[in-house]
Amino acid sequence: EQGTLKSTIAGSPTLAVFNDQLYFAWADAASSKIFYSPLTQQNTLTAISLDIPTSQPPTLSAVDQSLYIVYTDKTETESGFLYMGTIDTTNHVVINPLRLDGNYTSTQPYLASTGDDLVLAFKASTNESLYTYLNLLQERSTTVASGNFTLNAPSVAALWQNVYLAWVDSTNVLNYGTIDLNQPAALKIDSLGKINGNTTTVAPTLATDERHSQMYLAWVDGQNLIHIRTIYLLGEYSVPIHLNPTTDILENLFPV
Predict the structure, then answer these.
(1) Cα–Cα distance for residue pair 215/199, rounded to 1 Å
(2) What would the DSSP string read from start to end of 152-174?
(3) What is the reported pTM?
(4) Can you say how many angstroms the Cα of residue 167 is from the centroid of all Cα atoms in its chain?
(5) β-pair type (66-74, 236-237)
(6) DSSP-assigned letter for residue 71
(7) pLDDT tens digits, 81-107
């Protein structure tokens, strides 16, 4: 199914670069199916259905020569179980979808690439705790952030041998922590693990900057102001930038 991009998008779309091509994927609110699209050189999009019913928006990431997708199912008998597969961008199908050990979620999952593997973070429906899959393409070892309640979907990013997670706890306070892929026995909450005084009920988002050895954390507060904080991986963090999305323009915020 192809056509011009005019689907109503539910939840957050996901992005990934694969073979020098930017891809979008999202959950269509009208059909509850997954759609995806490449961005052409003319900056146009075409809505292509993968014909997969879903209960949440999917997540994309590319490793080597494969474009991976993780999504939740939606059938007459079940909803929210996690599946992973690769997208055949020629025939527009998901190849070899694999169910991930019976775990399910009521929020959008998130993928991050560690270079040669994938990490998946999600909120478990059973106990509302933050779960992560490490080495998703190999042994799919599960790390449970024991006792770490998350209000909504966690955000995940990776840099070198560390995985970074951000989430909102039961008191609406932002948290972040790291997992060392060389020692993945438990989620390590570092000394800057809570960003006190900054509360939110909206899922935060993370991005890493390998060139400058730093990470960006963005969130929306109770007054709908956007906050962007630079977290330096040497153990310091900046005063957050505050933006009013209706009046401010994102210019010259980050180093080049």
Answers:
(1) 19
(2) S--EEEEETTEEEEEEE-TTSEE
(3) 0.82
(4) 11
(5) unpaired
(6) E
(7) 899 999 999 999 999 999 887 677 888
